[in-house]
């Protein structure tokens, strides 16, 4: 919660649910990453929040960009990034999209299998590729599945294949899981990466880079370690597994860059119960739900801080739900959320830590509710 956001909401009084992002917080977050990891290049994960104002600020500060599509590449270029500051970090790409990226000057591509290598070799000959490996996401509130990456031993063959296809086998990447609370989570993945580097070096292929991925958290309801703690742990792991031959490293913060910079303003639409029982839980319906930007409440993985004007009053357990006519649009029911008894229909509610993965998950006007409006200040 920043004074600038509160002043904006009080003066503008925007109608309907909206996200407000404070660029001063984004700037501070970027400088914190750059200071804590001075030898590591920052590649902001555009998917977290692609607002033009956010991208332009980060470009002016010297950030690089991790892009998942040609559209995101164009956003980064429009914000002022040059092609050498952009990575096409999605391991699942149409060949024509690889060609489009190559035409824009993009030279760095993620792969995780030989078929993807073949696409890059045909559509972007001579470029650099890094292979994403699977790793343990224990400790993450939003663990990543096996959809992306391959077993470390398979990565050796994928990168050898890239070398034979005329590409530059550039490095290894991994992701330890989003909202990763364990500062030591990078150790095992770096051990695997070092093994791949060593094996390929014995075969005459010299890798150069380790992409440490994202996973850096933002604060929700629980305290989190500072970026400096993660940096210290990563530095120790790099030295432990690579010795004096530390590779080039990059990170891809998304949530950790913009999550705490944003607040969603929403409104209570209805408060009701499902029975006359005095013990029955209250249901609090907001004018935003899973389909309006709060998709990360799925399985209650992300529990956002919620603020109201009545927070000093007595609280009671509530089920929190969105406004759409879809039974999946329930935010917190397995672990009910405690909200003030005095909360009423029409009251405004502020949901903190929502700068990341909200507007991008709200791209379709489901049930006719318009996508989440965004203000960047």
TrEMBL record:
Record carries keyword Phosphoprotein: no
SUPFAM superfamilies listed in its UniProt record: Alanine racemase C-terminal domain-like, PLP-binding barrel
Catalytic EC class: lyase
Keyword Membrane: no
MF annotations from Gene Ontology: ornithine decarboxylase activity
Gene3D superfamilies xref list: Alanine racemase (3.20.20.10), Lyase, Ornithine Decarboxylase, Chain A, domain 1 (2.40.37.10)
Protein name (Swiss-Prot/TrEMBL): ornithine decarboxylase
Organism of derivation: Kaistia defluvii
